[in-house]
């Protein structure tokens, strides 16, 4: 008999589990939903695309400091036309010409970051064909090496070398923050569906309880132990429960569709969410949170970048407003001939030295105004960054305090949920025994339901604050490690 009883209990439990969790139902936890959203949501793909764009911009920046090999030319360069020719007596005649003037130039250049100059090497070959006179000439620069140096000018290469790495680091941290923001949004969709799921469970439970109590009340009414008003009140509660089920089913369907759409869920199986619990033994110290935020956040990098950009603007205003000069020097060989081999037979030396400059004589204070404007903007940036840093620190401390407070509140709501459920069971038993009015039972109904909803809302606030704290610090406090891609 004992074995038979165990088998009956086992089969009843199995049937009950199949009833609660039918086939085709996938049970998901909050971390699983978050990871799905981070991997396959549209927001995740957008963040990845933005990150990839910044990566290629970074490679473009790096290429500015590497040698550049360029081949350019005119091939062919045929002309057939009339051209103006001045005669010995000063008159002008238009003579027909037909010629080809082709050229090829291969140049290798390297920017010098420290000075802003450029060193280069070049080789050139030019061919001229006069078709009217059936004459061909070649001109060549076998090799030439030169250096071009701006004098007193703004050195963009030097400043980009300071700022662009910060921008790239900032973009990588922004990508991590975007993923954590996806976690925050996932948390909202998760708990919206979870609350709808709990509301449906509450409505179904209330309907069953109300039906049971109504049957008991009808039996008591037939025995003259209660009034018709109580029967009507319970019938009204029954109608309310039925309406609540209809509304809860609609809300659950909508919230499920929203969750599936956001996390990129393409499986046809039904989703059932598991109520998450508080992270056990998790203590967040404000000092630790601030240290990690200053080390990991994109905002912390942006503070340094903004100050450097302000300094660069001042340097550019000063460099562009004064004496601007460029010194160019070239040393090489050149030659001409009727054939290509002649070009490389005893080529002649070629030297070029050139200084280009422009000096503003009268600009009516334009140069000074530009410089002062940049200096004032630099001060404004410093004040803005200082204010942003204060807000940054305050936000971290506020979020840590809020997280600890919500953890304590979660304990209270969980206790209230347990007490309200127990109180309702006692009220139900007292009503069956005739020691409680229908009004008090209805109040106990409402308190039980509200306590359960309050517990879910408290869980949502707790986990939402936790994911917000991860976003603000890019640190996983649960596993004690930095958040990595």
From TrEMBL:
Cellular localisation: Cell outer membrane
Keyword terms: Cell outer membrane, Coiled coil, Membrane, Transmembrane, Transmembrane beta strand, Transport
GO MF entry, a single one: efflux transmembrane transporter activity
Ranges in a coiled coil: 200-249
GO CC terms in record: cell outer membrane; efflux pump complex
Record bears the keyword Transmembrane: yes
Domain of life: Bacteria
Keyword Coiled coil on entry: yes
Pfam families registered for this protein in UniProt: OEP
Gene3D superfamilies: Outer membrane efflux proteins (OEP) (1.20.1600.10)
Matching PANTHER family: OUTER MEMBRANE PROTEIN TOLC (PTHR30026:SF20)
UniProt family annotation: Belongs to the outer membrane factor (OMF) (TC 1.B.17) family.
Name of the protein this chain belongs to: Outer membrane protein TolC
Species: Pseudarcicella hirudinis
Upper lineage: Bacteria, Pseudomonadati, Bacteroidota, Cytophagia, Cytophagales
């Amino acid at each position: 008999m004992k074995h038979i009883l165990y088998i009956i209990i086992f089969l009843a439990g199995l049937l009950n589990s199949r009833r609660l969790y039918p086939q085709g139902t996938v049970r998901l936890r909050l971390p699983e939903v978050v990871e799905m959203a981070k991997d396959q949501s549209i927001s995740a793909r957008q963040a990845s695309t933005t990150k990839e764009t910044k990566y290629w911009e970074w490679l473009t920046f790096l290429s500015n400091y590497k040698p550049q090999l360029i081949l350019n030319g005119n091939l062919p360069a045929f002309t057939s036309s009339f051209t103006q020719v001045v005669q010995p007596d000063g008159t002008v005649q238009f003579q027909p010409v037909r010629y080809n003037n082709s050229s090829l130039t291969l140049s290798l250049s390297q920017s010098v970051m420290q000075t802003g100059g450029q060193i280069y090497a070049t080789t050139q070959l030019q061919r001229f064909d006069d078709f009217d006179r059936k004459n061909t000439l070649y001109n060549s620069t076998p090799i030439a090496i030169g250096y071009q140096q701006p004098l007193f000018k703004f050195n963009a290469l030097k400043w980009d070398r300071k700022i662009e790495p910060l921008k790239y680091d900032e973009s990588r941290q922004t990508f991590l923050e975007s993923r954590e923001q996806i976690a925050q949004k996932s948390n909202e969709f998760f708990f919206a569906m979870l609350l709808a799921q709990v509301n449906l469970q509450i409505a179904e439970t209330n309907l069953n309880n109300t039906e049971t109590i109504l049957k008991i009340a009808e039996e008591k009414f037939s025995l003259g132990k209660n009034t018709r008003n109580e029967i009507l009140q319970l019938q009204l509660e029954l109608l309310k429960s039925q309406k609540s089920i209809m509304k809860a089913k609609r809300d659950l369907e909508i919230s499920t569709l929203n969750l599936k759409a956001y996390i990129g869920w393409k499986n046809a199986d039904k989703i059932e969410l598991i109520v998450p619990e508080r992270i056990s033994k998790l203590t967040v110290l404000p000092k630790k949170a601030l240290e990690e935020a200053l080390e990991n956040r994109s905002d912390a990098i942006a503070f340094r970048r903004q100050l450097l950009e302000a300094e660069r603007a001042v340097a550019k205003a000063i460099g562009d407003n004064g004496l601007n000069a460029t010194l160019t020097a070239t040393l090489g060989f050149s030659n001409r001939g009727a054939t290509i081999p002649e070009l490389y037979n005893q080529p002649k030396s070629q030297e070029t030295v050139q200084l280009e400059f422009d000096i503003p004589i009268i600009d009516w204070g334009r140069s000074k105004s530009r410089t002062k404007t940049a200096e004032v903007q630099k001060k404004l940036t410093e004040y803005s960054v200082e204010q942003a840093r204060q807000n940054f620190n305050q936000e971290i401390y506020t979020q840590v305090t809020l997280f600890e407070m919500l953890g304590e509140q979660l304990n209270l709501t969980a206790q209230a949920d347990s007490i309200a459920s127990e109180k309702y069971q006692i009220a139900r038993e007292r009503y069956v025994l005739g020691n409680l009015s229908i009004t008090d039972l209805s109040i106990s109904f409402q308190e039980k339901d509200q306590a359960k909803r309050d517990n879910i809302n408290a869980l949502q606030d707790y986990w939402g604050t936790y994911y917000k704290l991860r976003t603000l610090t890019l640190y996983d406090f649960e596993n004690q490690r930095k958040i990595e891609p």
